[in-house]
Fold this sequence. Notes:
The structure holds two protein chains of two kinds. Chain A is mostly helical. Chain A contains 16 helices and no strands.
Amino acid sequence: MSTANTAADRPVDSQGMSYLVSAQRRFFTVYLPLGAFLFVLLFPFYWMAITTFKPDEELLSHVGNPFWVNNPTLAHIKKLLFDTAYPEWLWNTVLISVVATALSLFCSVLAAYAIERLRYRGSRYVGASIFLAYLVPPSILFIPLATMVYQLNLFDTRLALILTYPTFLIPFSTWLLMGYFKTIPFELEECALIDGANRFQILVKIVLPLAVPGLISAGIFAFTLSWNEFIYALTFVSSSEVKTVPVGVVTELVEGDVYHWGSLMAGALFGSLPVAALYSFFVEYYVSGLTGAVKE
Amino acid sequence: MPSPASALARALDNRNLLGLLFMLPAAALLLLFLTYPLGLGTYLGFTDTKIGRSGVWIGLENYEFLWGDAVTRLALFNTLFYTFIASVIKFALGLWLALILNKHLPFKAFFRAVVLLPFIVPTALSALAFWWIYDSQFSIISWWNARFSTIAANIWRGVPFVAITLLAGLQTISPTYYEAASLDGASPWQQFRHVTLPLLTPIIAVVMTFSVLFTFTDFQLIYVLTRGGPLNATHLMATLSFQRAIPGGNLGEGAAIATAMVPFLLAAILLSYYGLQRRAWQQGSGDK
Lengths: 296, 288
């Protein structure tokens, strides 16, 4: 019962029971581990950023502080933007991600509404199989998909990626949207049905406006998933002009025995920044997408 | 006699027909690019298909060959080792981080946002950063070092996912339980052991299933960091299957390796599914 005694001695603040813990103890149990976690989790980004601005002499020399830049340079960024196909890869990634996301959202909205609200015969089983489809990893599918892409004459086109990305985007977004549609009261739909609206009008005019947060969550999540996709883009595409950023950086900037770490890290940094920026605007939506997809 | 238009309107009132119509776009894409390739992949595993040459049915020959192949056995061992070590550490660190973030902190939302960064940036690109860190700081990468380097990078990427999803689970636990427990004299450890952990178990099961699935089928990290080397020491099933199928040209063999992963994935899914069912039954909740 020692905790109860110490509690009586201390001023009570409004933050639940955290007043039971002394400031010193709190430093060692909360702030110190948190600081260590943040340091480890963020260090690679710091490393990317300083390497991007470090001149080659400093990168190769073993003297001096490796964790700081003495003479920052833009040479690596200039090389990346003007001597490589990086801008094209960036454009491809944006284009493929946006189109694949839009396509997947369109399919998912209709499917999720049908499963959750039309409740057609067998919809429960379809819902469960959608969840199972979400668990199928791309590493199992890429070989048969590669042969299909080849036979459909889609090899080395952006369309190959736009059509295959929905295989992991649709199950995810449908599952997420089903959760959102479930929270919309039936009464709203019943009113509209009585007023003579058809199901499509209900979906567009009543359900979708109420499910906007869900749409944003699914959209942001799907966009980052397509932006980060690697194995399909590595397998289905081979010419430089149709590559995406992750594949382009890994396959074309890593060449030979001399690694140009500066431009490599610049490529990694600028490939990460767009998703990081998008994510920072929509953190809450992203987190609710992430946690919503895991909850059953 | 009903006009065609009203017949159509009536058909659209039928929820089964309308459901079918609404499912059409998603079903078409998923059946064509997910279900069919899943079957095709299994079929390819039983053929000797090579790039540019359609193969013939050879039964279990691929699997017989792979069973006797030292590299495949090593890759299987590596995959299990990698998945086990990385998942255990991701779970421990993720839970710890979630518990820290669940405390009352200033700038909590900011910390939570920053913590997720490793998870949202492209893995291939952060793997490059890891490569460069390893290359510049630890110049000699040996056999076991290479394994633990890839595991460390995987943990770095996976901890945020585990932490943030478990944090969401922690936030659903009502503080009244903790108040009641502390009034009964429960120590912080006892509160964690008897309140937090039991209430968190369902979400832990789901999160760890996802984590195990992603880790078991991991490809990007290994491909970028080591390409399976040195001496195949870090090859996983996924990277080996890519190696044999795409640069090696043996689509059939690669497909067989990929298909061999399926039983392990199913086992993981079933284990967590029945674990959850049994728990739900123990707690006396009726079926949903």
